[in-house]
Amino acid sequence: MAVKIVTDSTADLPEKIVSQYGIGVVPLNVHFGEEVYKDGVDIWSEEFYNRIRNEPILPNTSQPAPGEFLKVYQQVAKPGDTIISIHISRQMSGTADSAQLAAEMMGANYQIMVVDSQHVTMSLGVLVLQAAKAAKNGEPADVIIARLAKWKEEISIFFTIKSLEYLHRTGRIGKASVFMGSLLNIKPILSIEGGLIVPNEKTRGNFQKVAELMVEKVIERYGDQPLVVGIIHTDLPDEMVTLERIAKNKLNILETVTNLAGAIVGTHTGPNAIGIVAIPA
Amino acid sequence: MLQPDHIDGALLKELISAGTACLYSHKAEVDALNVFPVPDGDTGTNMYLTFQAALRELLNNTSTQVFDLLESAAYGALMGARGNSGVIVSQFFRGFAKALPKKTVNLTKLELAEGLNGAYNLCYQAIRQPVEGTILTVIREAASFAKENVDKKSDIQEFFNQIYQYACNVLAKTPEMLPVLKQAGVVDAGGQGLVFFFEGINRRLKGENVDETISDNLLTESKKISVTPYTDGELLADGVINFQYCTEFILKGKQLDLEHIKNNLSPHGDCLLVVGDENTAKIHLHTNNPGIVLDFAVRFGDMYEIQIHNMVEQSQQRLAKLSETAAVNSKYGIVAIAAGDGLERIFRSLGVQVVVNGGQTMNPSIEDLAKAASSVSSSQIIILPNNKNIILTANHVQDLLPERQVKVVPTHSIPEGLAALLNYSEDRNLEENIQQMTEKSQAVVTGEVTYAVRSVKLGEMDIKEGEIIGLLDGQIVTHGATPEEVLEAALKKTPRANSSLISIYYGCDVTPLMAQDLLNRLEKTYPEAEFELYYGGQPLYYYLFSIE
To answer: Which end of chain B is less enclosed by CB atoms within 10 A, N or C?
Structure first.
């Protein structure tokens, strides 16, 4: 009668957390031409960034087949268990639709609740982590579902991206398209609201300044509340160090989760994005 | 040979192979149509991979009953579904199989109609919010057509032919049902993919050969199939087209060597397709020189149905349509005053609709500005005067345009105007925008390098006519012989220059080389500062720069 948590590979959670909390992760697919790889299973982040920097074919992605969800659901749960399956924003991917189909096919012995997180990457990841902690504490599924609805409103992600070309190419640019085509070297700060990428602020200057501004935005929203903070990047290790340093100096952090984003998020942002996620602990 | 009243297991395998092969040969076209739900140019590829997964399972099943075979196809599609359209395909097979009695051996017209209706039902259930004008509409309409016409007198081949034709008609109407398709001038990609699948089945039912070479390829692992470069969809989305002319024709000859033709044409472009047999081949290629391609092919036989389309033109038309709608939807009209083609381009790239030519020695009149302001469609207008002598004029534009709301951000210089624009947001109301833009524009220090129009004595400085002078926020701070040395001297008088972002816009009297040399020197002098150099093209001012 346990509550199990399942997500997809766009949550970009570190392997350590996934195994510590027994979270099921369903891989999305990344395609180089007609070569298809399962994110985090057939292709690792490091290898992926190597390829997109060096190969002429730009990849694309696709949602998991419903069958992939069946496999993971059967792995993590026993008959009688409840599964909370938390996924990438429906406005960015049909992944939750595949999950819903698989949930119906699992039959009456399992209760499966599919949740549209309205987020992606580490902001999805931190929501999943919060849910996994609650499940570990023995909280019932309906309580976790209700808290997820609240957490979805409380969480923030601010990120910057050196070039919007990748987001534009794969059609995930959302309202951030207003930043396209500018001749000045503008650094956009973006966030995710209502399941879509939205522009938050434009700035100029070096990464240190952009990072400080992102952290300012976190302070603006949460003040000195204790926070769970996530830092995620698509292969920008130096910037990652800078952002983490500034965040640790200025924020009241209880727990930090950092990771290199996987191939799916990397496909859509290109190797040039970094962001910070925060939620009151 | 075909039994006129039913499809047996063996034929079913052939039909689904033919449908998949047909989709394969058109998948690049389907990718290019992809604008809904997200324009990522992969629908054709995803559908093909899903059909391929279904087909592989189907061919591995040795049963002769169509029910078993369709169950296998459904399983294969479910496990191999790629993307949204792939999930719909998987439900198509599942729904089709579920609608048939277990152990169905053959498909007659009746089972075909029932299967299609089962497919339609399940596909609609699978999608949370079904959208009309998509593959779902095509499936539903084809299913209801089949149901209504199943009792009419026709053999199964004619029956399917009618369903196929009907599906084509429905597909053609999808742009009328889904605005995003109409805007882009395309039919629905998923619907088109399904129609290609039907086309393959239809051709095989008529006894045509749907390209054996392709069918052979289908059975190899997907990872090993030769890659058609990622296609039109993303190229068009990016606005980058490497090969301009889509060239297509049918070649009829004797003992055509398709491999030889393929090898010789492939260096001349991408998206190459050579399909057919030794008598007839269809050739498709994106190339920059259709002449070479035709010249080469004509040696092997006669050419028919030659079509050459300029894809740049098509793509531009598509982009033009999109940008028109973007401009109309803009909430505010922004008018900026600037001189110089480079600056004009920069202002436009930041969302300014009208740039009025003007500046220090040519102040536009109220009427000039009012005319510019009234040329934009928005009722709320923001003016950036970018010169202290134009602010007052701009403040009076409202008097001439009582029917609009005109606000002025009092920017004294070009850099202030650019800083203001950076803090403009479509999501804020007019008042908030003006307040934010004004506040941020004042945080910038403006530098100017020009020449003295007359001799003047300013404190310690004895400035001769024609000498180069440097200004910071409108005050002369230095003078000298060359624009570059004056700029460097002016920067020295700026506190915190070494920790700032310094943007330099060079004018029409400065060569790019001189500007670049200057930049190189400055980067050495101020290792901690960040520099950006842009072509402004402005007259009178050798350099404009900002420190922020």
So the answer is: N
